[in-house]
Amino acid sequence: MNKVKIKSLLTLLLIALPILSGCGSSGIRSLETEEESMLPIGSFAPEIVGKDVNGKAIKLSDYSGKVVMLDFFGNW
Prior knowledge:
Number of strands: 2
Number of helices: 2
Distance between the termini: 35 Å
Strand content: 5-15%
Helix content: 25-40%
Order of helices and strands: HHEE
Largest sheet: 2 strands, antiparallel
Radius of gyration: 22 Å
Structural class: alpha+beta
């Protein structure tokens, strides 16, 4: 194959790969029903662990009794 055909094929693959890999909703559902995955009213939130900008571990339980706002940010 010449270089133009190879470049064209690679460009096509780079464009098609996100589409073929399922960037949209895939329709795969969890085995749990929505009702089973919900926490009962009044129950404690599950433990969530993350890292701050300095790499230090932060646990949700460290803020027990305080108001906490979680922002799940994605940059896709």
